[in-house]
Amino acid sequence: METLLDLPWRTDCCFFTPSLATSGSGVAFADVVCYTTAEREVKRANRDLSSLLSNIESPLSRLDVVQKKYTDLLAEMRRLDRDHVKNKKRAELLQKERDASRTELSKMVAMKEKMEKLSRELQKEKQKLKVIYP
Fold first, then answer.
1. What is the pLDDT of residues 61-108, one digit of tens each?
2. How crowded is residue 19: how many other Cβ atoms within 10 Å of its Cβ?
3. Helix/strand/coil (H, E, C) string of 20-62?
4. 23 neighbors 29 (Cβ within 8 angstroms)
5. Which of 19, 33, 46, 100 would bridge 28 by S-S if both were Cys, CB 3.0 to 4.6 A apart?
6. How far is it, in rounded angstroms, from Cα 77 to Cα 68?
7. Chain centroid to CA 10: how far?
């Protein structure tokens, strides 16, 4: 039976955030949380599969059940990968829109400051003209 450390892990499979504190072994706390969550999911899936297969007598029927389960999980993984790619593209698009909005906002703020400065200068000129031409 495979142990938790034998499984191929991807950092994008869970909420991976670098931790400030590490255990004595140098393993970050976020890594441990990710592994324990995944380990619980693997144990639950194994327990479900074992209970499903315990009721079936013939090896061919067991094989069919395992194959169906594998096919379902593969379809779900592909669906999740498609959703992930779609969400990643959407996030990139939203990030570009956000950057464009921030750039536009900074331009508008700069233009507003320039207009206010010009307005103050015009007010000063108006006051000077009032003094010169009452």
1. 889 989 998 999 999 999 999 999 999 999 999 999 999 999 999 999
2. 14
3. CCECCCCCEHHHHHHHHHHHHHHHHHHHHHHHHHHCCCCHHHH
4. yes
5. 19
6. 14
7. 14
Does residue 53 contact residue 68 with C-beta atoms inside 8 Å?
A: no
Distance CA 49, CA 42 (A): 10
Q: How far apart are CA 93 and CA 38, in angstroms?
A: 31
Cβ–Cβ under 8 Å, residues 29 and 21:
yes
Token pair for 6: 């034998």
Which value, in Å, is the radius of gyration of the alpha carbons in the chain?
Answer: 31
Q: Please report where in the chains the tokens 């906002």 appear, as a residue.
A: 105
pLDDT in tens, 107-122: 999 999 999 999 999 9
Q: Are 115 and 107 in contact (CB under 8 A)?
A: no
